[in-house]
Amino acid sequence: MTDLRTTVVVITHNRRRELLRTLDRLAELPERPEVIVTDNASTDGTADAVARHHPEARLLRPGRNLGAVGRNLAVREVTTPYVAFCDDDSWWAPGSLTGAADLLDRHPAVVSVTARIVVEPHGTEDPIVRELRESPVPGPPWLPGPALGSFLAAATVLRTDAFRKAGGFHPKLWLGGEEELLAADLAADGWWLVYADHLTIHHHASEARDATLRRRHGIRNTLWFTWLRRPVVPALRRTLDLARTVPRDSTSLLAFTEAAAALPWILRERRVLPPEVESRLRLLEPAQRASKARRYLG
């Protein structure tokens, strides 16, 4: 069942044990995909462990922590038409990479396929799966699944060329909701993003995480995206929604402060989305307010 259409890209930082488990699972896949790992300047021996235990994986060592841009670095090396992302604490289920490639082969206007996320070790669905499955974004009847307004980098297969043309993940966003800007730009280019319920990725959350930093970046990046791409009135409404719903603590205050400090950059790079893409984002706003799964709120 070897499938040469998809390369798996993984970024990692100081999660040697989790990464080796993920690489073990990816090596067992019947598709036998090429795997590229970007080690974001780990100090726990991650890179040496990968070289020793998984020499078949291509290892990139940029020498500093690039955040999500580590994925961009890896995609430069990809020669397959599709690229599958997963985190160092997640892995694709057997057959899912082939299933995603089949969907992309059959639907040339679809740019990304996001899989169902199963939380380990108990095998339960991630709460965000229901939101993906019940996405309010309208799409043409030929779509192979619900249309999405964004995607989850840890559970998505994308067209390699489209990712490159759109510029990949913006370096200023680093990590935390970094997908939203790229997803909107892909939609503005005429692409559709979909959810596929029959594809699966497993996630065994690492304990080595800075939830506070991730929440700060998630709030900040949402504000940046909002003012980079949304018209003024929706941007004001979204900003007020965030101000009302995020925890009232120093982390949220710092996130808003960082977002405001970047106003000159925002004004230079602001490019409002086409009306059809903006209308999809407006439909998502009620679901975003009611969401129990948004990572940066918890």
UniProtKB/TrEMBL annotation:
Domain Glycosyltransferase 2-like: residue ranges: 7-131
EC number: 2.4.-.-
Keyword Transferase attributed: yes
Gene Ontology molecular function: glycosyltransferase activity
Keywords associated with the record: Glycosyltransferase, Transferase
Enzyme class: transferase
Taxonomic superkingdom: Bacteria
Pfam short name (any one): Glycos_transf_2
Family per record: Belongs to the glycosyltransferase 2 family.
Protein name: Glycosyltransferase family 2 protein
